[in-house]
Amino acid sequence: MADEIRVGRWGSGERDAVLIHGLGNSSESWWEVGPALADRGYSVHAVDLPGHGRSAASDNYSVESLVDAVVGAVPAQPALAIGHSLGGLVLAHALDRLAPRLAVFEDPAWTVALVPEVVEAFRAQKKWTIDDINRIYPQWGDESRRRKLEALAQWDETFLDDLPQFTPATITTPQVPTAVILADPSALVSAEHADSLRQRGFHVLTVPGAGHVVHFDDIDGYLRALDEAITR
User: In 10 A of CB 69, how many CB atoms?
Assistant: First the structure.
């Protein structure tokens, strides 16, 4: 599977960073984060999950197969691993094998609970035009909108058929030093859940005014939160 996984790369630093995107996106979603981390001394490895970006599609998807794909395509024991949304679920399941020195979850989808209406809403994104993205995400920059539209064109929507059966992640105490960067408000991690995470040793940050794709909504706020997590 590793040879079927496309990995975008930035930088040549001595520390590795692994980036895992969310559903219906691609490694191109890190187009600002990757270079920013390279400037901070990292070698950045951003995967295209199976069925996304330029990675091969699959006949069957599971969170376990996504973990196998990621772990087989990136360096072990990176200094930093970031998972956004669905990528946060993949990262949570990959922690034992990937063993990053710091894990960062960006508005993570640790539990997949998709009712039919939500599944169909995701499926409808395949028909989005740039005008739809401009209307729905007016705060995004033009380049982020363009890359999202490209990612939707590449995405294998049959992924949705298997998604409801994905194994949720059990989040108890941090396995490694862990930060959680949330939208404001987050539809996936409630305020009560965030407080519980803090009490259990997670470093929880919120980027004011940011939506689910925090690094598209407010790249400067996102990088400030990320720098705080890295230097803590």
Answer: 24
CATH assignment at residue 169: 3.40.50.1820
Residue range(s) defining the domain that contains residue 206: 2-231
Q: Taking the CA atoms of 94, 222, 152 and 119 in sequence, report the sign of the dihedral they define.
A: positive
- Buried b / exposed e over 129-166, threshold 16 CB at 10 Å, is eeeebeeebeebeeebbebbbebbebbbeebbebbeeb
- Answer whether 0.90 is exceeded by the pTM: yes
d(CA 4, CA 59) in angstroms, rounded, equals: 14
The DSSP output letter for 208 is T
Sign of CA dihedral 37, 9, 22, 139: positive
Distance CA 89, CA 166 (A): 9
Query: What total number of domains does the chain contain?
Result: 1
Q: How far apart are CA 106 and CA 43, in angstroms?
A: 20
pLDDT digit string, tens, across residues 196-216: 999 999 999 999 999 999 999
CB of 119 within 8 A of CB of 177? no
